[in-house]
Amino acid sequence: MSATAAASTASLSDKQHQILGYLREKAPMKTYFKSRLIAEELGMSAKEVGTNMTAIADGDLDVDVERWGYSSSTTWKVTV
Questions:
Q1: Which of 64, 68, 67 is nearest to 80 (CA)?
Q2: Do the bridges between strand 32-34 and strand 64-69 make them parallel or antiparallel, or are there none, so unpaired?
Q3: pTM of the model
Q4: What does residue 76 show for φ and ψ, rounded to 5 degrees?
Q5: What pLDDT shows up at residue 8?
Q6: Is the dihedral of CA 41, 42, 45, 48 positive or negative?
Q7: Alpha-carbon span 53 to 77, nearest angstrom
Q8: Would you say 48 and 57 are in contact if contact means Cβ atoms under 8 Å apart?
Q9: What's the DSSP call for residue 14?
Q10: Partners of 64 in the β-ladder
């Protein structure tokens, strides 16, 4: 992790850290994630995940997050 990415993760909330950890663990095995399914795994609402994913997507982190689709829950494209 670069110094910039480390500084960026310091500004994340606990929920954002939890989501980021989930994405880092799962992204090497898959690319697309639905907010609803992340929420089920992490004990959050889909709305909480969507709100927090925006901060992760906007951050200078070691994962790239892009809003991809909206059918039956927002889908996110995640690459590491």
A1: 64
A2: unpaired
A3: 0.84
A4: -120, 135
A5: 63
A6: negative
A7: 11
A8: no
A9: H
A10: 79
